[in-house]
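Hi V.,

You were right to ask for the full record rather than a summary. Here it is.
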Amino acid sequence: MNKTRSNFTNLYVKNFGKDMTETKLCRLFGTYGIITSCKIQTDNNGQSKGFGFVNFERPEMAQHAMMNLNGYVLEDGKQLYVGIFQKKSERQNEIQRIREENHHRQSNNLSLFISNLDSMIDEQLLEVIFNKFGRVTKTHILRNGSQSKGVGFVCFNTMDETMKALNEMNGKWILSKPIYIKLSTNIVNSQSSIPSSPTPLISSANVSSPPIIPMPYFNTPMFYLPTVMLPTQSNNYPLQTAPHNSQTQSTRECSLSPSPMITSSTTPNIK
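Predicted structure:
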């Protein structure tokens, strides 16, 4: 609707009898503002077609009249309809928009989402399978190229037909496998959420061998306490004895002092 409630001045009036004249119509609407024109549509014989137009001087007048007279009961018992006047193209666009919204709402409410379909089932066979429950308005199979994804939709004419098919066909074997059915609230979202191939419960990534964790490399200085090592016995030298007490004491004191830092060049290879 192009006109908003803040700028319209022309009203469309209908559902009055043939005894309604332009004078009566102007008198009825004139209590709500200044009328610039008042016209009742007639046929070739001059007989009223039961509708007309009333145009006000200012938008607030037209709005006031519409709010008070829409649904007004005339003397003959007819209920008056008063709305914003629209051109023919505007009315057609509005009617088309309403039809599309109703069709979209109905399609979503009356659609069944079917999964685990045999790859041999196409739209025609799907309609044959489900038309025993009522009038099938649409069938669709989702495909990856020419290959069926094993899922599809069936749309019925009424909700009773939809629920009957759901209750009787869910879990039934069709060709090589059972089918699973649920109500489809949004065909587009259902299609986008369907994977192209079944996802395994456990993937190869989950059962691979555990990773090998490398040994840490220490960049910080390391200290050690030296061990006094006795030379091994040689055939050419006599057995060496332990040093006397003063040397032992000196060695003990030395062993308590910080050890030299091990650098990367002196780090032994651990195998």
